[in-house]
Amino acid sequence: MGSPNPSGSTQPQLEAVRSCPDIGFRLDTRQFPVSSAVSASAGARPFEQHYRPEELAKLWGLSANLIRDLFEFEPGVLKINRPEKLHKRRYVSLRIPASVAERVHLRLDARQRAA
Fold it and tell me: Using 50, 70 and 90 to split pLDDT, how confident is the model at 55?
């Protein structure tokens, strides 16, 4: 169990920056505060099925680029940033939880029915 942090909760303190130098991965957790309120509002659970944009595109019969556009700023979608390095371009990998995919599908379906 962690010690109380400034907000008064007893969640474990995370280090500010986590990195994996073998693959050039670095995550600044200060940009992504961890709180139960954010987790609950996003609706994603850590061990539920997560889809790559290509997988969801195949299931929905859409292009992977359209799926990326739909989910790029959706709350609950995991974004794994790999920064640009010398002679290598920057990559952002998306992982879309099943609950987020369901929420977006319901929203798109409701819009289509309203039109």
Answer: very high
Rg, Å, the chain Cα set:
17
Angle 69-74-78 from CA coordinates, rounded to 5°: 95
CB 17 within 8 Å of CB 28: yes
Query: What is each CA distance from 37 to 34, 40, 42, 66, 112, in whole angstroms?
Result: 9, 5, 9, 29, 31
Q: What is the pTM of this model?
A: 0.60
The model's pLDDT over 79-115, given as tens digits with 9 standing for 90+, comes to 999 888 888 888 889 999 999 999 999 999 988 888 7
Residue 81 to residue 94: CA distance in whole angstroms: 9
Q: Which of 23-27, 71-75, 111-115 has the highest mean pLDDT?
A: 71-75
Which residue ranges make up each domain of the chain?
A: 1-34, 44-114
Report the distance separating Cα 41 and Cα 3, nearest Å: 24
